[in-house]
Description:
Shape: globular
Number of helices: 3
Amino acid sequence: MSNELLRRLRAGEVSQEVDLESDLTKAWGGYVTMVRNEVCTPKILVITDELSVQSHSNREELWYLVSGKLAVYRGPVSEDPVKTIAGLDEKILMPGDLVKIPKNTAHTALNLYPQPSLIMEVALGHAEEEDIRRYYDMHGRVSLEGFTEGISIRDLITQCRKYLKSS
Length: 167
């Protein structure tokens, strides 16, 4: 823990109270947030399917896989959402693996396990819904014009790369 964070905790500038918030009814699974503040927001992600492709400008995230198996995709953000998705690289996570998602990095996760995969997520910075920029969501929140809706991120990455190669 940084000296600045310790100083702010001792000065009462950062909430130390547990304030559970949960929503396990999402199409992709759900989450349990333990405390939300401007410095650090820990939560458990319960991933049954696939998260939307998104980025955050006000926070970075650390994902620690507690159980299950995930394909995590990360890559640079482009003004062109097709380039953003085509630029995603896959990393397979097994229990105990940790991945860092810097600010302004496109990312998503795909559950590869028969049961839900559990991620301990620690958001460093301002972790609010308005800090989510979505590029694609297989559950219909955001589509990519000209591409098949509702397909897995693996298939969409392939389609985007073929499109860019042919244009």
